[in-house]
Specification:
Elements lengths: L3 H27 L3 E3 L8 E3 L3 H24 L10 H23 L3 H6 L6 H4 L8 E2 L3 E2 L7 E2 L5 E2 L1 H23 L6 H19 L7 H17 L8 H18 L3 H7 L1 H19 L13 E2 L5 E2 L6 H8 L4 H19 L5
Antiparallel strand pairs: 1-2, 3-4, 5-6, 7-8
Helix pairs in contact: 1-2, 1-8, 2-3, 2-8, 2-9, 3-9, 6-9, 7-8, 7-9, 7-13, 10-13
Amino acid sequence: MSAVPIVVTLLFALGLSALTMPWFIRKMNFKGQMVTDYYKSDKPPMANNGGILTLFVVFITIIVVPLIFRLLVKFEMEFPRTFTDADTAILMVVLLYAFYGVLDDYIDVGRFSKIIIPLMFAYPFVIVLSGWNPWVPFGGEISLSSFDIAFGNLGTLTGSMMLRYLIVPFYIMVVANLKNMHAGFNGLQSGTALIILSFLLLKSAVDSNFENIYTIAALTGAQVMFFWHNKYPSKILEGNIGSLAVGAAIGAGFIVQHYIFAGMIMLMPHIINFIMYVYWRIMHRRHPEDERWKIVKFGKVREDGTLEVPNRLTLKWVLPYHFRMTERQVVYSMYVLTLGFCIVGLFVPG
């Protein structure tokens, strides 16, 4: 399949986002939908929940672009008339995570709920998936039929069912939460997401595997313009609606392309950040009175513009804890780290 329809989808979303994002920022400022930027000396307010517009652009793109393709078909050009069931299912998963992000923004659902409830959100996607033999490190491609478990007259629990109904929902939930956690600085979440989405598309291009990634292409195009306005000094934040939805899309994208382990490599900085945070919470629970393990959400900005962070227990705080660095320098270092792992993931088979 040609890459041209994917490029058209991406560019349409990018253009629509470029036209609407400045208007959306002005509207959010006018309506008072603002949050404080704690990593600036004057702590300025900025618009929030930019993920709403990003998702709106993706939906409009998925509606309009097939109509454009239908017109092009009449001119005997080879474009798909409709998107696949998997693309539609990914869009539904993204929507469910987005609504959950809205709920979390307003009532704070708690960390335990973010683990349990979102597992159900993957099932519209699971039912359109077919089984495949995944690739694992040092083992190559493994046959899922070897994991079939018979239960007599009750039937058989197949390896394919375990992959689709257990591993896939867990995978998407984990990726969504990893993206939501690795944030806090201008452009950090959006920039790393854009790098990962770009390499997901690039790896698909290398494999000539374009069939089910129109939603991912639309999201990537919309994310380009959101990142432009979210980078330092940020004019708008994505909110939980944006970070959870984008994370869910990345997770579903890796699944639909059968890039489970390649995705894990590309997400390695996010995984390391999560492990560091879990260690922090464990030590705080064991030593609640020790100031070293005190739970603190934000750092401070010194007079010279460098960051003063409370500890080195999240990935984005490691470098500024040891060196005098500005917010922009720290974010660039996270981009470089993510880029390095994405390059490695590009060469991982699955």
